[in-house]
Design brief:
This protein has 2 domains: about 200 residues, DHBP synthase; about 80 residues, no CATH class. The protein has 8 helices and 14 strands. The strands form 2 sheets. Strands 1-8-2-3-7-4-6-5-9-10 form a 10-stranded mixed beta sheet, with helices on both faces. Strands 11-14-12-13 form a 4-stranded parallel beta sheet, with helices on one face. Helix 1 crosses helix 5. Magnesium ion binds next to loops.
Length: about 300
């Protein structure tokens, strides 16, 4: 693709992880596998390293990043954990849950990580390769999804390269992501109240979206966009539409022929990438039931279907 970096593809071996760790310690950028989507990692304690993430993604600087940690002890050095937060972390980490917590005054984190907010988003990913990497670097790693800002999230190394080849130092290839949609984000509020900021693989607590404040800008109306019009809830596609099927509604590709929502989540971004690459000028998507992880799938599809302005 051409860019200022010769992007390396690293195997998920001891040697590959050691190389990724060395790049990160020097302040470089490595795309890493997680159980949700690939993240674009940089050390979270160095301003220059964090600035590179924003530059490579073309991400607006007001959109804060999730910091990935090796364990709860490391997380406690970065944020204040209430009893409720502690209980959630113990129940769901490692896993697809991001906690937005008060940032500690003495946290070793670059200011840009939380984009000026008094809070910090933390998550312990459940992927053996990235867990090994986090232990080897000994550093908290800031990592947004490894795609250009506003585009479809990556669920394999090829998706990362399609978007960021030449713009990052390396991609650590850990195969396809299991879950396929980004983590559930919750904020801990006064009195132990839990507010869901982004639906994801885990359903947590009572939902209270607190009006239309944009606190997790992943909540912006247009996001995950494949670069062509997307029509939702389609049972009969037009001839010029790339049809993404589900259950008995077949198409050019299917999220899950058996109607399994977990499978549909894991295939969502791969199907959107395929639709984006196809020569058909528009994309149509079959109706997806809004139960369980189907809620998160519909959330991402609505944003993919909203034109950017
Ligand atoms: O599954 C995931 O969460 C993936 C993998 C790589 O871990 N990461 C991911 O990152 O989806 P990203 O940057 O694409 O989405 C992070 C979301 C954004 O919507 C951001 O606005 C929100 O988290 N966020 C980060 N810090 C926040 C904070 N302090 N308060 C509220 N929202 C925050
Ligand atoms: Mg993202």
């Amino acid at each position: 693709m051409g860019g200022k970096y010769a992007t390396e593809t690293l195997e998920a071996t001891k040697g590959g992880i050691a190389r990724a760790s060395a790049i990160l310690r020097e302040g470089g950028l490595v795309a890493v596998p997680t159980e949700t989507v690939y993240g674009l990692a940089a050390r979270a304690d160095k301003a220059e390293a964090v600035a590179r993430i924003y530059e490579a993604k073309g991400r607006p600087s007001f959109n804060p990043l999730i910091v990935h940690v090796a364990d709860l002890d490391q997380a406690r050095t970065l944020a204040d954990f209430s009893d409720e937060a502690e209980a959630l972390a113990k129940a769901h980490w490692p896993g697809p849950l991001t906690l937005v917590l008060p940032r500690r005054a003495d946290a070793q984190l670059a200011e840009a990580v939380s984009a000026g907010l008094p809070t910090i988003a933390l998550r312990m990913p459940n992927h053996p390769v990235t867990q090994a990497l986090l232990r080897e670097t000994g550093l908290p790693l800031a990592a947004p999804s490894a795609n250009r800002s506003g585009f479809i999230s990556p669920t394999c190394a090829d998706h990362v390269l399609a978007s960021l080849d030449g713009r990052i130092d390396a991609v650590l290839d850990g195969g396809s992501c299991d879950s396929g949609v980004e983590s559930t984000i919750v904020a801990m509020r006064e009195g132990g109240r839990i507010e869901e900021l982004r639906p994801g693989p885990l359903a947590i607590g009572e939902k209270d979206t607190g009006g239309d404040r944009i606190e997790a800008p992943g909540q912006l109306a247009s996001h995950y966009a494949p670069g062509k019009p997307v029509r939702l809830d389609v049972t009969k596609p037009e001839p010029d539409e790339f049809m993404i099927g589900f259950s008995q509604l077949a198409g050019d590709c299917s999220l899950s022929a058996s109607g399994n929502l977990e499978e549909a989540a894991s295939r969502l971004y791969a199907c959107l990438h395929e639709g984006a690459r196809s020569e058909k000028p528009r994309i149509a998507v079959a109706p997806i039931p809004a139960r369980g992880i189907g809620k998160a799938i519909n959330d991402r599809l609505r944003r993919a279907a909203t034109p950017a302005d």
